[in-house]
Amino acid sequence: MVASLLLASSPRKTQVQTHMLAYDSKGSTLWTTMNNITTEATGAAAILLDSGNLVIRLPNGTDIWQSFHHPTDTILPNMSLQLSNNNNLSTHLVAWRAPDDPSTSDYSLGGDSSFQILVWNRTMPYWRRAALDGVLVFAMYQSKSGPIMSQTIVNRGGEFYLTYTVSDGSASMRMILHYTGMVKLLAWNSNSLSWDVFFERPGSSCDRYASCGPFGYCDATEAVATCKCLDGFESVGLDFSLGCQRKKEIRCGQGDSFITLLNMKTPDKFLYIRNRSFDQCAEECSRNCSCTAYAYANLSNLGVTVDQSRCLVWMGELVDTEKRGDGLGENLYLRIPSSSVNKKTGALKIALPVMASLLIIMCICLVWIRKSRG
C-alpha cells in the first residue's frame, strides 16, 4: 500500500489538500483520512516519526493531521485512546476483518464514562475491564524478556485518555485488537524477527463477558479458570448458561447482612455514585431492598478525576464478575440473608469445640501408649 498527498495547482498559488489515500495493488482505494482540510502553502510532507506517528507537516512545523489521533486497530506506546470527552464520546479501535483484509470487522474496543474498557462484538459486550478503582497505574504487564508496559488513564482538560508507556530500553511494543476480538500486547523479538504475544484477553472461556451467567463468577485463581456461584447462591443448570440463584430469598426488613468478597473484578451494570464516604456508600445499598451489592474506592490520590471517591451499587443481577488471580481486584460487598451468616457462625461454634476435644483425646492416647511401652 502507498499513501499520497493530493496537490491542486493554479497559476497563482498551490493548494495542499491533506486528504490521504491508501491503495491496494490493483489501484483500488482501501482507506482515506477524509479530512478535507485545505491550506494555501507549499511543501507539506507526510512524515513517519520514530514514535510510529504518521503526520502531515507544513513547512512552518505545524502538524495538521496525525495518525495517533485516528487509531485503527493498534495503540503504540505514548499514543492515547480517548475514553470520553466533554460530549461523552469516545474513540474506538476497530479490528481488521481478516489478517489480510483491513476493512472493519464486528469487533471494536473503547471506554465509557466510568473508565471501563470494553470490547464489543457489534453491539454486544465481548470482554470488559472493570471500572477505575483508585490505582493510578491501571494495569502493568511484563513480557518474558523483561520489558514492562504500563497502562494509565490521564485527564487532559476534562477529557480522559488511556495511554501506554514502556520501560526504558525495551523492545518495540504495541497493543492490538485482533480480528478474532482478542486484545493482545505484543513485543518485537529481534531473534525470531516476529511479534511475541505476552498478554491477551479474554484469557479463558469464562473470562468472556457474562460467561458465568447472573450471580456466577469466573474464578481465575484456579489452575484452570472455572465458573462458580457467589456465596449464598447455587447453580441453576450444569453449564452456568443460566447463572446462579439464591439458596434463600432475602425478605426486606427481616434482617440481612453483607459479606466481603476479596480481590474481585466488580460486576457490570452498576449505578455510579460520586463523592461518598465508605459508610455513606454502604448506606446507599443497605437502605434499598433491591440493592444486591456495593463497592467503594478512594480516588483522591489519582488526580485523574475531580471525584474524591467512587461508590458503585448494583440493583438486581450481578453479571460479568470475576475473582482475580493477579491481586489487582477490589472488595465487593454482597448482600445475603442474615441466617446465612448465623448458620456459618453456628457451624463454626460447633466445629471448634469438637476439634479441640478430639485433639485432647489424641494427646491423652499418645501419652498412654508411650507409658505402656515404657
UniProtKB/TrEMBL annotation:
<dbReference type="GO" id="GO:0048544">
    <property type="term" value="P:recognition of pollen"/>
</dbReference>
<feature type="transmembrane region" description="Helical">
    <location>
        <begin position="350"/>
        <end position="369"/>
    </location>
</feature>
<dbReference type="Pfam" id="PF01453">
    <property type="entry name" value="B_lectin"/>
</dbReference>
<protein>
    <recommendedName>
        <fullName>non-specific serine/threonine protein kinase</fullName>
        <ecNumber>2.7.11.1</ecNumber>
    </recommendedName>
</protein>
<dbReference type="GO" id="GO:0051707">
    <property type="term" value="P:response to other organism"/>
</dbReference>
<keyword id="KW-0812">Transmembrane</keyword>
<dbReference type="GO" id="GO:0004674">
    <property type="term" value="F:protein serine/threonine kinase activity"/>
</dbReference>
<dbReference type="Pfam" id="PF08276">
    <property type="entry name" value="PAN_2"/>
</dbReference>
<dbReference type="InterPro" id="IPR003609">
    <property type="entry name" value="Pan_app"/>
</dbReference>
<keyword id="KW-0675">Receptor</keyword>
<keyword id="KW-0732">Signal</keyword>
<dbReference type="Pfam" id="PF00954">
    <property type="entry name" value="S_locus_glycop"/>
</dbReference>
<keyword id="KW-0472">Membrane</keyword>
<keyword id="KW-1015">Disulfide bond</keyword>
<dbReference type="InterPro" id="IPR036426">
    <property type="entry name" value="Bulb-type_lectin_dom_sf"/>
</dbReference>
<feature type="domain" description="Apple">
    <location>
        <begin position="252"/>
        <end position="337"/>
    </location>
</feature>
<feature type="domain" description="Bulb-type lectin">
    <location>
        <begin position="1"/>
        <end position="69"/>
    </location>
</feature>
<dbReference type="InterPro" id="IPR001480">
    <property type="entry name" value="Bulb-type_lectin_dom"/>
</dbReference>
<keyword id="KW-1133">Transmembrane helix</keyword>
<dbReference type="InterPro" id="IPR000858">
    <property type="entry name" value="S_locus_glycoprot_dom"/>
</dbReference>
<dbReference type="GO" id="GO:0016020">
    <property type="term" value="C:membrane"/>
</dbReference>
